[in-house]
Each structure stands twice: as C-alpha cells, then as structure tokens.
C-alpha cells in the first residue's frame, strides 16, 4: 500500500509540474502588448496562420525567449541539485558559491575585449568563457573546502568569492566604452531578453547532452547520498565521480550565465521545493523533477519581470530573489532546529 501511495505521489507531483508548465507557457506567449486567444496562439504555432504582426512577435521574440527560459531554468535547478549533492549542503548553489559570478566575470572581460574591436562573440565562445570562469571559482571554493570543514564557513567563503568577482566585473564595466556598457548592463543583471533561435539551438544541444549524462549518473548519485563509504562499497570511483559532478554542474551553470547572466536562488530553492513535493531524494526522480521545477519557477519569474512594470523590464535575478530567498531562509531555520 505504501508503495502504491508513493507511486501515486510521484505521478501527481510530475502531473502538477507539467500542468503548471503548460499554463505558464500559454500565459507567457500571450503576455505582452498583443493579447491573443488560446485558439489564435495554437493556429500561429501549429498551423502558421494568423495576423502577420502577431505571427512575427510570437515566432521571433516570445517563443525563443520562452524556450530559453525553460531550458536554462531547468539547467540551473539541476546544477544546484548536483552542487548540493557534492557538498552535502542544502544551500549550496551556483549563485551562492560564487560560481555564476566567476562565469560572469570571464564572459564580461571577453565581451568587452571583442566589442571594443567590433567583433561579435558567438554562443560557443560565451559558453566556453563562462565554463572557464565557473571552474576558476569552483577551484577557489574547493581550496577553501579542504581548509574548512564547517559547511556554513564554506558557503560564506563562496559568497565572498562571488562578491569579489562581481566587484571586479563592475569595475571593468565602469571603464568600458559607453556602447559596450549598454550591451553588458542588462546581461550582467540577469535577463532572458533578446534570445534568438540560434541561441536556443546551442543551449538545447549543450543542456540536453549534459542532462543525459547526469541522468545516467543517477545510481552513483543515489549511492553517494548515503555516504562515501557506501558509494565505494557499491563500486563508485569517488574521485572520478566528484570530478564528474563538478564538471557537469559547471557546464550547466556556465550555459545559463553565458546566455542570461547570473540568476540567483533558483539552484537552491527549486531542488528543495521538488524534494518536498516528491517526499524523496532519489536522483532518478529528483533530476527530471528539478528540470521541470526550474522551468516552471523561471517561467513564472520571467512573466513577472516582463509584465508587472511593463514596458520597463525587471532583472530576472531581482524576481527570483524575491521568491527564492524566503525558501533559503526556511531551509536554514529548519536545519538549525535539527541541529
């Protein structure tokens, strides 16, 4: 009976996430200066019929942005889950540990370098630059982790690394050319605006390939959650496994930072919400649920960022912080009570 209840709970959780995803997808397509009925939206998307202006707005602006939000939101959430598994800490995440800020710094430096020479920076170059920045930040975090065994100190160190990277980025942006600052400003605050089908194609390939590898690592992750000794007894090569977790989480967070800039709290809040919804930490269930949850959370936050003060658009990080920070505070209070 318990197994049946658990299975029903899992199906219900995935159904809830899928329904929210569909509702928010349609809502995001319709939100903006032009309002369309569901039938008009379906005609434009599936039959390629409808008003020319509405058709161009949906196909060239809204759909690439919405798909980007789904892909990158899911990637960021899974990256947070991998980091939480690696550090065995519920508030470890790409933004909190300074990984996103490191990626932001290297991308900003390269963007300024290329833009000052009137050279456009390709998607692949941005992802590689963000990955290098992520790995540099992660290297500093791991060095601190070797010296400090207290997890709260590790998180504080990550936050400090993030502040240093952000300060250097702000300093560099301040002394960049005026034309470069305009291009960098929105991106450095976090934004899904200006996405193209080319961007969607590149991020989809990178995220999909990484997610396949993460999914195949479900069993070793499950064993690692029960302790290093247990994982070793189950035949997991701990050294290779830990390197794999670092690389995969860095690729996912780098892809997000390269296209949308640093986005706060998604990587911490969503995995926790998903685990609470499923009432399990089994990676085989949590990984796809995290992807769906991250997509739903970011679609909701992006909708608010676009519409609340339209035509002015809020930075996505400001909105995700409003909804994600209370979850992090709750996690910390709950953890303190347990201790």
Keywords:
339 residues, mainly alpha, ABC transporter involved in vitamin B12 uptake, BtuC, 14 helices, Hemin transport system permease protein HmuU, transmembrane transporter activity, transmembrane, ABC_BtuC-like, ABC_transptr_permease_BtuC
Produce the secondary structure layout.
Elements: H1 2-30, H2 38-47, H3 52-87, H4 99-116, H5 123-147, H6 151-174, H7 178-189, H8 197-216, H9 218-225, H10 228-233, H11 238-260, H12 266-278, H13 283-307, H14 316-338
Helix pairs in contact: 1-13, 3-8, 3-11, 3-12, 3-13, 4-5, 4-6, 4-11, 5-6, 5-11, 8-11, 12-13, 12-14, 13-14
| DSSP strand count | 0
Unreliable parts: none
Q: Measure the end-to-end span.
A: 33 Å
Average predicted confidence as pLDDT:
84
Instruction: Please give the count of helices.
Output: 14
CATH homologous superfamily designation:
ABC transporter involved in vitamin B12 uptake, BtuC
Question: What pattern of helices and strands is seen along the backbone?
Answer: HHHHHHHHHHHHHH
Percent of residues in helices? over 70%
Radius of gyration: 20 Å
CATH architecture title: Orthogonal Bundle
CATH class: Mainly Alpha
Structural class: mainly alpha
β content, as a range? under 5%
